[in-house]
Design brief:
Layout lengths: L1 H11 L7 H11 L3 E2 L4 E2 L4 E3 L11 E3 L4 E2 L4 E3 L4 E3 L4 E2 L4 E2 L2 E3 L8 E3 L2 E3 L4 E2 L4 E2 L4 E2 L4 E2 L4 E2 L7 E4 L4 E5 L16
Parallel strand pairs: 1-4, 2-5, 3-6, 4-7, 5-8, 6-9, 7-12, 8-13, 9-14, 12-15, 13-16, 14-17, 16-18
Antiparallel strand pairs: 10-11, 18-19
Length: 181
């Protein structure tokens, strides 16, 4: 019962509070997210979880300067890790749980998603269970990523396929923490 209440409050109240510090405090202290002081989760994030992380759920780690933009879906059940200065555009879906198609009981498998340092994910992309996006990887807008993306690889399409490589000479740092957002 407590988990359902926390799920409701997280997604229908806290996610819409326009003060970054309030949302950040909730994610860290109530849900148990590990968030760097310079990481940001914008308004409208929708979180899926079985129970808060501090009570045995999967870990969620958000690295230094990482930005998770508006209206993203964060499936915390299998675990999520965002590296330093990772940039997630609006409405991206991270799905860490899936039903087993051949299981007569319609069982579920949870697998973590890892997003490397300085990876960049375009709007409305979907990242599926067990995927690792390497350092500096780019996922094009609208792509559905079913397999790992190597460091500095650029993928796009449905399902996502390699389309280019990114420069390995990346030095930028994201430092965006608005009061109202």
């Amino acid at each position: 019962m407590l988990s359902k209440l926390l799920l409701y409050l997280t997604n229908h109240v806290i996610a819409h509070v326009p003060f970054h510090a309030v949302r950040r405090g909730w994610y860290r202290h109530v849900l148990g997210f590990e968030m760097d002081a310079h990481a940001t989760i914008f308004l409208g994030a929708y979180c899926y979880f079985y129970r808060p992380c501090r009570r045995g759920g999967a870990a969620v780690r958000i690295g230094e300067g990482a930005v998770i933009n508006r209206d993203c879906s964060l499936d915390c059940r299998g675990g999520l890790t965002f590296g330093k200065h990772a940039s997630v555009s609006p409405e991206v879906m991270f799905i860490t749980s899936e039903h087993l198609k051949d299981d007569p009981g319609f069982g579920v498998r949870d697998e973590p998603i890892l997003v490397g340092d300085r990876a960049w994910i375009g709007s409305r992309a979907v990242i599926l269970p067990g995927v690792t996006l390497g350092e500096g990887a780019i996922v094009a807008a609208g792509a559905v990523v079913t397999r790992d993306v190597p460091a500095y690889g650029v993928v796009g399409g449905v399902p996502a396929k390699p389309i280019a490589e990114r420069s390995r000479d990346l030095h930028y740092e994201l430092n965006f923490r608005p009061w109202f957002e």
